[in-house]
Amino acid sequence: MNFDKELSTRGLECPLPVLQTRKAMKSMESGQVLKMISTDSKAMKDMEEFSRQTGFPLLSAVEENNECVFYIQKK
Predict the structure, then answer these.
(1) Coil, strand or helix: which one is 61?
(2) pLDDT digits (tens, 9 = 90+) for 8-63
(3) Which CA distances in Å does 37 have to 16, 24, 40, 59?
(4) Catalytic positions, please?
(5) Residue 17: enclosing H or E segment and its boundaries?
(6) Of all helices (H) and strands (E), which one includes residue 51?
(7) Cis (ω within 30 of 0) for the bond into 17?
(8) Which uninterrupted H or E stretch holds 36?
(9) Largest Cα–Cα distance of the chain, in whole Å?
(10) What angle, rounded to 10 degrees, do the helices at 43-54 and 16-26 form?
């Protein structure tokens, strides 16, 4: 999937991945896509909730090799 910015939150625990994602999204333009990588065990649930609360579409959320990879689009 194409993306405009990548954010690694590897090694960070909740709520830091969500807070850093929110900060990264603020610097992006509408329509751009953020790739966020997390090792937090709660990341799947947290990012689904982040998407619901902000209205930013969660385009993809997959877990592979003990990492969660998310693609989030700024509305």
Answers:
(1) strand
(2) 999 999 999 999 999 999 999 999 999 999 999 999 999 999 999 999 999 999 99
(3) 12, 13, 9, 14
(4) 14
(5) helix 16-26
(6) helix 43-54
(7) no
(8) strand 33-38
(9) 31
(10) 40
Token digits of residue 26: 């603020």
Q: What predicted TM-score, i.e. pTM, was given to this entire model?
A: 0.95
Q: CA-to-CA distance for 51 and 69, rounded, in angstroms? A: 14
21 φ/ψ sector (left φ>0, alpha ψ -120 to 50, else beta): alpha
Closest C-alpha among 59, 62, 57 to residue 75: 57
Ramachandran category for residue 7: left, alpha or beta (phi over 0 → left; psi -120 to 50 → alpha): beta
- Helix, strand, coil share (%) of the chain residues, nearest 5: 30, 30, 35
Query: Structural domains in the chain?
Result: 5-73 (3.30.110.40)
